[in-house]
Every structure is written in C-alpha cells, then in structure tokens.
User: Fold this.
Amino acid sequence: MSESATIVHKPEGPPRIAGQRAVRPKNAATVMIIRRDAKKPRVLMGRRHGGHSFMPDRWVFPGGRIDRADYRAPYATDLRTDVHGLFDKYLPVGKGRALALAAVRETWEEAGLLLARPGEARGTGPWKDFVAQGMLPDLDAMDVVARAITPPSVGKRFDTWFLTADAERLTSLDRQGDCGELDEIAWVDFDEAMALPLPAVTRIMIKEAVARMDDPNRPKPFLRYKTNEGGMRPVAL
Assistant:
C-alpha cells in the first residue's frame, strides 16, 4: 500500500451530533485468524447483530474494546519482541499487551474459540470464564497487521490495532460457548470475504492480509482519516 495514496470511503457508524466536539477514540483490537488447511487460506469472520447501532449486519473479525481487566489478565506466552517493540513505539508500556489480550478475550466471547495454551491461573471479571477452561492466552501467536482510527465525523470512534494469528494456535476449531455479539461465524477464503457486506476498513485489511502473503516485510499501515482530504491516508507504522 502506497504511503502517499488516499483511500476514499464513506464513514460508517452513527454521525457526530452537529456542534459537538469530535469523540475521543476508544482503544480496541481485533484479530484475523487465518486457516491454511485447504487449497485457499481462509479467515474467521462473524456477522454483527442487526440491532447494533455500530455496523449492524456487517461481517467483521472478532475483537473489541480494551477492558480494565485486560491489563491484569494472566497469559501462557508473551508477545514476541518485535511486536512488543512496535506497540511500545506508540503506546504506554503494557498497553499493547492489554490490547492483544482484549483481542483474545473477545475471540472467546464472540466466536467461542480459544487462542490459548493449557495453563492454570486465577481469572476475574470478564476473564473468569476463559480461565475456567484450563487455558491461558497464547500471545506469542500474534502479529500486528495495521492500525486504524475511525474518522472524527462519526459519534462512535475507535483506535483499533489489527492483529493476525494462525488457526493452528487455536485449542480447537470447534466453537464453544455463546457467540455474544456475532450472530454467525464462518471460515471464508479472501475472495468470499470480499463479497460479504463489510465495513470499509475491514475490506482494506483483507486486501492488506492478501498483500502480506506475497510480501511479509511490506510496511504496516497506520490509517488516519483526514477530513480535508476526503479519505484515509496511510503512513507506515
């Protein structure tokens, strides 16, 4: 993706109330879990409930907002050194790990899948059910794909880190527990994914994931919305 290119798309989500200052983005993380046991790679996606005010009926990767408990959650393996370093370049120490833990937790809550290894620890709050499975998060499985900030023109904004992990690092491909916000989940190849009703940024990330398969060392984009330019302008992380 060219750093100089401007990506034009219609902002999604409830619009900001006229006269209000731009909403501060909430920290979030999402994970693209890629399965490679068929002719074409497949990615895990889920459909959001139609009653949601933010991106109803759209297909997304599992993920969500960071929770206070994510800073204290136990884990089986830590982030790789290079992933740690990238987070620490932009965030306070420890926040990157908390974001990765949020993505793992949300994958369990939304899709019923555990990106984890066997382990025993005490879990509280939103982590109680996860830890009760006898598993702890496998953060070593994760890498950063990109970062994107929702435009200031909408009423709900997120500063989201897009992560990736291999499906082989899941404890099982069989879904467990409740689906939460995702009405339906599916493993789809990238062409099938592009045919789904997707948020604009999700479409960009699928293209980025495909490009990274050909060039794993390509720059990781940071997408920020420039209102006076009419679109997202990526720079390299």
Q: What stands out?
A: The two ends are 12 Å apart (CA to CA).
